Each structure stands twice: as structure tokens, then as C-alpha cells.
Amino acid sequence: NSGDTFTDGTVNYAMTSMFVPTPVISVAIKPKDSGAEINMSKALNRFTREDPTFKCWVDPESNETIVAGMGELHLDVYIERMKREYKAEVVTSPPQVAYRETIGVRTEFNYTHKKQTGGSGQYGRVAGYAEPYDGDFEFVDAIKGGSIPREFISSCEKGFKSMIAKSPRLGVPVVGLRVTIDDGQSHAVDSSDIAFQEAARGAFRDMFPRAKPRILEPIMKLSIEGPAEFSGNLLSLIMQRRGIVLGSTEEDGNSRVDAEVPLAEMFGFSTPLRSATQGKAEFTMEFAKYSDTPSNITEELLAKAAKAKADAKK
């Protein structure tokens, strides 16, 4: 496997762990026919062991096989290898950008989950606040005086964690979130692990839309090299794609332009680049950071998500 270390057994080294960036693009794939299914599975198993930035999983809702990686070319290479090395013809969906959501302001919550059925019911109240955070997610237990019994603190954490996998608006992971619980209430009979998990989920659903949520998109570092005579065309291509030019150099008749461009604007970039430079330029691209989407893109994404939800209910 990639990242494995081999020694002769006589030494005991402490190795630093390998940094593996999170994939920024995904596609759904399926075998073209039943004969390709086994070979596709073998290929995916090998590729995920070879390359820690290449991920594969089955979507629990659609039951589709999803592969994810660091860019369109990255996935194209593996799909081509499936065909060439494993004779596995596959069909792919359009690429999906790995958007994220986060919150914009500190927001308090105070939510009670109460459910009464024939026998014992469910009861749990959680209160506290959510705030922006530099990491992905942090849960802080600030309960004093036993307002929530110790055995149910982890239940609250589980409930919040279950909600950050899919945001309420776009259904994408929520990042940059710290949740602190500082008060609550339990019932001697009706409180349980499930009751406090549900209370935390309800608190999240109540808090998130009030916390000025923001959509984040992956930004790629783009480098293009080609003849200096086409440098104006290169700059135009970047600006058309919401790109920000970081710098450009010219030497011996060749030009290099470095920029940051949203991944969503880079699909199929090879074709316009060839047209603009008579096929004489080439580019490389790697993940740089996540950044807020502009308001018009935010509106488009939310409208698309709302339509998808409405269609799913039909």
C-alpha cells in the first residue's frame, strides 16, 4: 500500500504521517455490462491501495459507486487505466464539485426533544451555541451541575456529528464548526441515548439556518505555460473562469501564468486552452484552498438543490 514503510526489523524508526489532501471532485461510475463489474471492482481495490488521494465508496442513498480525486485529469487517468489494464468499460456521470458549508456567526440554541408513545417516552433538552472554527469540527462539553447526565454527553456529540455529514441546504459536509453545550435537562424515565441524540439533531436543524450559513468551493492553483505570444489569451481564459492571476513571467519566448481558479470553472479546460494557443500550451492544477462562493453562484447552487429535492418527492 502507498505509505507503507519497510525495514529489516533491527531498527525502530518513528515516521511522520503522510499528509493526504481531501478529494475535491467526484463522479459516479458503473460497469457498462455485467462482465465488467468484477474487473471494475478489482481495479478500484488496487487503485485505492496505490493512491491515498483516490477514494471510492458506495453512496447509501443512490447505491451508486462514487470515485473521488484531486482533479478531472486525475480521475480520467484511472478510468482510462480501468479500460486498458482491466478491460473494464465503465460509464461515468458528470463530475461533481466537493462543495462544503460552514456557518458565519455564533448562534445560540435551546432545543427540547419530547416524544410520548404508549409506554416510556423520549425526553432531552440541549442548550448552548455554535460558532465558526478553524478546523473541521469540535464538540465542547461545558455542562455544569449535571443538567445533562454524564452518560448522555456522548449522545449529544453523536447527534451533532451525524448532522455535519450532510448540510440541510445542499447536502454537503459542514466544516469550520465548534459546538458547545452548556445547559440542558433530562427526565428520570424518558431520557436515553436516542433521546439526546435526537435533541442534538433538532438543535442543529434549528441553529444552522440562523447562523448565516456560507457555501465554500474548492479553489485550485493553476499554472499554464506556453508561447509568450499567447499570454494575453491565457489571461483572458483565466479571467473568464473567475480566476485571480497570482503572477506571470516571460523568458526565452515562453510565458508562465500562475493563478487561483474555482474547480467548478475548470471542467473541460483542455479544449479552450488548445484553441486559444494552437495546442502549444499546457497546464497543471492542484488543490489550494476552500473559499466562499460569490452570491450569484450561491443562489444557483441553492436553487439547483431545491429543485433536486422537489423532484425527489415526486
Describe what is shown at a glance.
The chain is α+β, with helices and mostly antiparallel strands and 314 residues long. The chain is 31% helix and 32% strand. The protein has 7 helices and 14 strands.
Features:
five-stranded antiparallel sheet, Alpha-Beta Plaits, alpha+beta, 314 residues, 32% strand, 3 domains, single chain, Ribosomal Protein S5, domain 2
Task: Please describe what this structure looks like.
The strands form three sheets. Strands 1, 2, 3, 4 and 5 form a five-stranded antiparallel sheet that branches. The chain is of the alpha+beta class. The longest helix has 19 residues, at 295-313. Helix 1 (34-50) crosses helix 2 (72-86) and helix 3 packs across helix 4 (193-207). Strand 9 (137-141), helix 3 (153-164) and strand 10 (177-185) form a beta-alpha-beta unit. The chain has three domains: 25-97, 2-Layer Sandwich (Alpha-Beta Plaits); 102-212, Ribosomal Protein S5, domain 2 (2-Layer Sandwich), CATH 3.30.230; 216-295, 2-Layer Sandwich (Alpha-Beta Plaits). It has seven helices and 14 strands. 31% of the residues are buried. The radius of gyration is 24 Å and the shape is globular.
Write the CATH architecture name of the largest domain: 2-Layer Sandwich
Task: State the share of residues found in helices, binned by percent.
Answer: 25-40%
- Cα(first) to Cα(last) distance is 45 Å
- What percentage of the residues does DSSP assign to strands (E)? 25-35%
Order of helices and strands: EHEEHEEEEEEHEHEHEEHEH
> What Rg is obtained from the alpha carbons, in whole angstroms?
24 Å
Which stretches are poorly predicted, pLDDT < 50 over at least 5 residues? none
Count of beta strands = 14
Mean of residue pLDDT values: 90
Secondary structural class:
alpha+beta
